[in-house]
Design a protein that fits this description.
Length: about 100
C-alpha cells in the first residue's frame, strides 16, 4: 500500500534502500512504470525499447506499446537534440492518430 502512490524518483530511492525492498517491489515497479511504453521508429527509441525487451524482469510487463509516427521536421528536431546532448527528447511532438 505504501508504494502504490509513489512517484518514480521516490520509488527508485526506496528500491535502493535494501536488497529485500528491491526484490519485494520489483514486480510492482515493473508493472507501474513499464506496462505502457511509447516509442518512435527512430534508432535511439528502438534501442531503448530493445533494452527493455531484453531485461527478463521488464519484458513481460509491457502490455501496451504506442508507436508515434514522426514526420521529416520531427526527425530534424531529434537530430538537433541529439547533437546538443539533451536526453531523452522532450515531448515536443504533436499527437498523431
Amino acid at each position: 500500500m505504501v508504494i502504490a502512490d509513489l512517484a518514480l524518483p521516490d520509488y527508485q530511492a526506496l528500491r535502493l534502500a535494501s536488497k529485500q525492498l528491491y526484490t519485494l517491489t520489483l514486480m510492482a515497479f515493473s508493472s507501474s512504470f513499464f506496462s505502457k511504453r511509447k516509442t518512435t521508429l527512430g534508432t535511439p527509441s528502438l534501442i531503448r525499447l530493445r533494452r527493455v525487451s531484453c531485461c527478463k524482469h521488464f519484458a513481460g510487463s509491457v502490455s501496451l506499446l504506442e508507436v508515434k509516427l514522426l514526420n521529416h521536421s520531427d526527425y530534424e528536431l531529434l537530430q538537433q537534440i541529439d547533437r546538443v546532448g539533451i536526453y531523452p527528447p522532450p515531448n515536443r511532438f504533436r499527437k498523431t492518430f
